[in-house]
Structures are given as C-alpha cells and as structure tokens.
Fold:
Amino acid sequence: MANWKVKRAPVIQGEITVPGDKSISHRAVLIAAMSNGECVINGFLASEDCMRTVDAMRALGIEIENPEPSTLIVRGRKRRFTAPLADIDCGNSGTTMRLLSGILAAQPFRSRLVGDASLSRRPMNRVIDPLVEMGAAIHAEGDKGRPPLVIEGGKLRPIQYFMPVASAQVKSAILLAGLYAKGKTTVTEPVQSRDHTEQILRYFLVHPQQDDLSVSIFGEQTPESRDFTVPGDVSSAAFWLVAAAAQPHSDLLVRNVGLNKTRTGILAVLVRMGAHYSEIIEESDQGEPRGSIEIKGAPLKGTEIRGKEIPNVIDELPILAIAGALARGKTTIADAGELRVKESDRIAAIAKNLRAMGGNVAETEDGLEITGGVPLQGARVSSYGDHRIAMAFAIAGLFAEGETIVEDIDCVATSYPEFYQTLEKLSQVHSGPPPTHVISSIPVRH
Ligand code: S3P
Structure:
C-alpha cells in the first residue's frame, strides 16, 4: 500500500494544465462506440476508470486503438454490440457500471457487471428501476440492489421518468437506453446535474430536447461519427484551485480546462469565500466550453454550500471542505447525503481525517459543519480507498504544520494519475533552501 508524504508549501504561483475530463472521457468512448463509424478522441483521460470503459467496449466487440495514452481511435458499430465472453469488470468506476447498464439493457444478450470492493457497496437500484421499467431484466446479486449486476437486455419501450435523486449517471443511463426505444424517452431530475451526455449527443447529431429539468430523446437514432477533443477536468483542477485560493499572494493559471456551467460551481463557492478568479472561454465548438481559469488567493471566509448547488460541486466537496477548514468562520455543507455513497462515505472520511489534523468538524447526516481557521497539524490520514479523499488531504498537508502522510493512495490512478508529480514539485520547491514559500515550477503539459 503506497503512501504520500506532504510538507507545508502554501503559496502557489504558476501555470498548469490538468488531464482530460473523466466524465466526458467515459461518454466520448461510449457514444463513439455507438456511432456509425470511426471517431478519433483526443485529450482522453487515460486513467484506470476510463480504461475500464474502453475495455468494456472492447469486450463488447468494439475495435479501439490507443496509439498514445490520450488518443483513442474508436470504430463505432451503429449501436450494435456482441455478447461478452466473460464478466465485465468495472473496477472502481461507478460511471462505467451505470452508463454501461443503459446500453446493455437494450442488447439481445446477457451480461454480468462486476466491480471492486468499493463499487460493490454502491447503490444500483437507481439505474435498475428505470431500466426495468423500460423492459430490461436486471438482477443485482448484492444486497439491496448492489453489484454484481446481471443484465438480460432486450427490446425497450420509452418511458417518462422522474428521478428521485439528481444523478448525471442515472440520467445518462436512461438517455443511452432511450436511444434504443421506439419513441420519446423523457427524464426529469429534481435539480440540474452535469449535462455532458446531452452535450456530446448533440455534437454527434442526436438531438436531445431540454425543457427546464427534463431531457427527452427520440429512440432509434445512431450518433454520427466524428472526432472529439476532451477538455481538461475541472474536478482535477479543483485541488490546485483551492490550494491557490486559500493562500494570499497565490496566483495560479489553469489552461485548457472544461468550463461547462454544470461543473464550475466551485468557482462561485470560492468567490463567496473571498478568492478572486477570472475565467476565459476560448472554445466551445464541440458543445463543451473550454478555456482558462486564473485564481488569486485571499484570506478565505466560511460559507454555506447546500441545495441546488450540490450536484454542481458534488465531486469538489472534499476539497471544498478543506477550503472550509482553512477559512475563517463556519462552513456548512448540507443536502449532500449523496457523499455517503460515493467511492467512500466521504462525509465520514473527511470528518475523521480533518479531526486527525486538528480541524474542528461535526458530521451531520447529509453534510459537515466545519469551524475553520484552526491551524492544521500534519498527521497520518487515510484515503479510505477514495481518490478524491487522498488528493484533498494531500492539499490539506500543504497547509499543515509538520509532515502529513496520506495512506493508500493507489486509488488516485482512477482519475488523476499525474497528481503526485505536480504535488511533488510543489513540496520539493518548498523543502529547498529559499524560505519564501514561492512555488513557481508547476509542470505545464501541452
Ligand atoms: C458523474 C456523475 C456524478 C459524479 C461522478 C461522475 C458522471 O455522480 O459524482 O464522479 O460522470 O456522470 P452522480 O451522477 O451519481 O451524482
């Protein structure tokens, strides 16, 4: 089990790029595989999670070349797949399992989806229920709708579905299944979640219709093959954005990052907390805006994160909790019960780790109350096998007195394999002789 050692290095000045967006990378592969021809995907995130989706598509008969880590050539087969010879292993990836379920629900064969220990604890009834209503037979072998899933696909009928939880994964599974159902499938969410599936379907000339919180799709459409470039992942940038925002005199520029409004809620939160940022959209010709974010640090103050804002910042809540611990006053995170069913119980993991570092935090059923401004102390903390917990606490370590050990960090390969390289540069610069805390050598990836 590998660990990280992190030392204090609070001021960040520099320029970075971050690897491709995880959510968009999964979708690009799936929709290219459903398309009517060859698609070149650039900027693909070659992380463990996204490679699970690639391997799943290969197991279902799709030819995919991977000439460089971030380039894929996918040969779509017009929504047709062949039966897998073995179980499909989704590893740690909830996105793979849930989105793939939508496609497999419509295939005329049986498939079995398995996952690692963390994925095997995650709820799947949220995708099983609507897909069964559409006509698929799905059996969850685990307790209370948990994986493995056995899917007997078949002819689907369109449905009108009101989602009980805001989940882009569930919405996407239904929309992908809807592509196989004759007629109009409509899914309505309680609160807007990320809309990458809708955007990429539009770019591939399938035309989902958006009406407030409802999205409809007409079935029996095949995505039109085309090339696609994945922007950098704002959820990966989030770690560096908070590291910069929380320290006066920091100034960080993140280039070529996705700026989809359903994902950039973290910027609004950081502004409320006192940071300054500017954002420049440089391109949005493929439906996904991309550009640069410049963030300047300031003494942060506490804030409330709740309600409709939650789905937009759901993956950023661990690092925003760290921002809260570094801010003056109280930060409240509420309405975020979904955090308990992510790669770990993130509410419990954040609370335990922050306490180990001397932070003042109370756990609630659906969130956290953090009284910030208490100096953090280096400590041994665990990732709990969860990539975002590992990275959030590595950033906390940059602000703590003494050394922080983050245990069990292999999980970071699921979303951000290069994270530690960047972090190490920061720590190395700091542990060198100049006592100025200035970090200026964050690597730039082109
Ligand atoms: C994702 C959606 C979110 C997010 C996850 C990726 C996606 O999950 O937490 O990391 O790619 O659709 P939910 O849709 O279940 O909230």
The pocket of shikimate-3-phosphate is lined by residues 23, 95, 167-169, 172, 193-194, 314-315, 338 (CB under 6 Å). The first strand starts at residue 3 and ends at 6.
